[in-house]
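How it folds:
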Amino acid sequence: MPRSRLSSDEGSASLEFITAGMILLVPVVYLVLAMSSIQSAALGVEGASRQAARVFVQADDQSSAARSAERAIRFALADYGVDADAATISIRCEPDPRDCLARHSYVSVTVSASVPLPLAPTAISMDRPLSITLESTATQQVSRFRITP
């Protein structure tokens, strides 16, 4: 029995391929964009805390140590495109919080930053883009051979 022209499936495979491809491809592309943004920020936050702890323990005095650590954090976050003004920084010293640069002291620098998700509308989250908060802590020991000024 001959098939009628109205029930023919000719040409529908390309339409189905385009439709299914778009339905699958758009979320995958967004996932790649979001994950690369988060990974970049994670590397930036980790590098910032590590470098800040290193320069802190090598400074001559406490005030220059804090300035050097803040400068190192700003540079590291800027390299990865993270807003340094929105980052929070915490410096903790052990065993004596008043003298961070004493021999054998441990200095811990914690950097926390919020990374906005790409292409996320601000209407969903009340005038703020959707974001993920990343945090990193690095600890360095002050050298036992440090010469105190």
Remarks:
- The helical segments are 12-57, 62-79.
- The mean pLDDT is 87.
- The chain has one domain: 13-141.
- Residues 116 and 131 are 4 Å apart (CA to CA).
